[in-house]
Design brief:
about 290 residues, alpha+beta, 6-stranded mixed sheet, 4-stranded mixed sheet, about 20% helix, about 30% strand
Length: about 290
């Protein structure tokens, strides 16, 4: 999965570290999650390359390091963010804007898809917390932790995670597969949904299956988890068994289609970076 980068290590410890000229700086543009883009160029191998601090300086897009925010490191490579709130339409020779999902899909170099998703997750959080939600004053970076603080009312805001579940519903040798309605991604998927305040992850599983396909389930079992920065999610995967007849009534607001697919009829997933693909592959191979 995208977070499986061993022996490399992601270091998320907060720091006020200053960028060096050769350090990579993520630049994002947009004010809508469906339209946000990352600034990259493609190298000779067709792989996305992030601009460096030196390139932004020489292009006149930044004056000094005060406009750059340290994000994290992968091993000894530091990654930074241009703190522009997504508003500046920055232009650099050879660079262009691409969607976050395309960036992650095209990137095969170890660690870079995780870096892109994590950087975007933090960009989205910084962008949406420039002003205090309690009193309206401009927020400031907190000095000792990854947070922003209001100088007026002292409201302290930490990065937001939205827990969601990915659900593999089994019916003997069949798996319930779906396709989303109104989404950019048109491939095969599993049922999914956000955890509501006041419910456990297991309760979310049962509720989402009932809401999306009108089925009841039992034997809800945890499979694994994954950060998914494109949507600010922390995903938790569960398998469960059908506890009802196998008729399906889909929620057409959420799903374009849904149906039972036999284990032997499932196509191998070409990319197992996502939790969904990993779970489908695990079922196809008879591991769950």
């Amino acid at each position: 999965m995208i977070q499986d980068i061993a022996p490399m290590q992601l270091h998320l410890e907060y720091s006020m570290k200053q960028p060096q000229k050769s350090d990579s700086v993520f630049v994002f543009r947009g004010n809508n999650k469906r339209e946000d883009r990352a600034l990259v160029r493609m190298d000779e191998e067709g792989q996305p390359v992030i601009p460096t601090y030196e390139e932004l300086l020489s292009g006149g897009w930044v004056k000094d390091a005060s406009q750059i925010q340290f994000l994290f490191a992968i091993d000894d490579k530091d990654y930074f963010l241009l703190n522009n709130g997504g508003n500046a339409d920055i232009s650099l020779p050879g660079f262009d804007y691409t969607s976050i999902r395309t960036f992650c899909d095209k990137t095969v170099r170890p660690g870079l898809p995780l870096a892109g998703m994590t950087a975007y997750h933090l960009f989205f959080w910084y962008r949406d917390n420039t002003c205090c939600g309690r009193c309206g004053h401009k927020m400031q970076p907190f000095q000792t932790e990854r947070a922003v603080i209001c100088p007026e009312c002292k409201n302290l805001v930490f990065p937001k995670l939205m827990p969601a579940v990915i659900i593999g519903v089994r019916n003997g040798n069949k798996l319930l597969c779906s396709r989303y309605a109104g989404r950019e991604y048109k491939g095969i998927a599993l049922l999914a949904g956000f955890c509501e305040i006041g419910e456990s992850l297991e309760q979310t599983v049962a509720r989402e299956v009932l809401e999306e396909v009108n089925c009841k389930v039992t034997n809800i079992t945890y499979f694994g988890s994954q950060p998914w920065g494109v949507d600010s999610n922390l995903l938790a995967g569960f398998f469960c068994d059908l506890d009802d007849d196998d008729s399906i009534t889909i929620d057409e607001n959420e799903l374009a289609s849904a149906g039972w697919i036999d284990r032997d009829e499932l196509e191998p997933m070409p990319n197992v970076m996502s939790l969904t693909a990993t779970m489908i592959e695990a079922f196809r191979k008879g591991e769950v």
